[in-house]
Amino acid sequence: MQGAIFDLDGTLLDSNGVWKQVDDVFLARHHLTKDAEYTRAVTQMEYSASAVFVAEKYHLDMSPQEIMAEWEALSLEAYAQQIPMKEGAREVLTALAEAQVPLALVTLSPAVLYEAALKRHGVLDLFQLKMTVPKAHEQGKDRFLYDAVCRELAIPAAACIGFDDDLSALEAMRASGMTAYALQDMRNGDMKNLYSAAGFPQYSWAEIQGIILSDKIY
């Protein structure tokens, strides 16, 4: 193993509940009530469309741009001050960095969020490459994205391992030739059988650390 690629949300960070938290704070701040229509809209709509929906539904004296700005400020506060790392994640990053394994971060989150969180946890500088998934990859994390990341690291995909909590990302890693490991998370905890059937048993970071220390990875 010559390189390692990490997802952020739900993988390194225990952050997949952050947008519910942002919703709850925003609604409480403006004395608004969440209902089924709201939940359905904000989970299914594109980000800017959700802001338009909220402005119209609640007849707010705010533009969609102002609503998005407040959401973004709340999310930055959460990443910069509140969201914890998954237990054991720091130890795995440190072990790989000490073994001089190049590390890459590939995330859907913008730099302002991942930099704030990883800097607070003291691991930002462990990564040789950090990137938000480019808009050109309309389907999110696909095999072509991982091919490009491996080229950027100057490492063959077959010599890279990857960590993610999302099944489609794991399948894309495998399609590129990487070895992929699924991380347990709150949003996939009830899908263990589905992940296992696809060839991705779910691990905790403590289990991943055990695999690394037992020389099963490198």
TrEMBL record:
It holds the Pfam family Hydrolase. GO terms for molecular function: phosphatase activity. It comes from the Bacteria. InterPro entries: HAD-like_sf, HAD_sf, PGP-like_dom2. This is Haloacid dehalogenase superfamily, subfamily IA, variant 3 with third motif having DD or ED. It comes from Peptococcus niger. The lineage of its organism: Bacteria, Bacillati, Bacillota, Clostridia, Eubacteriales.
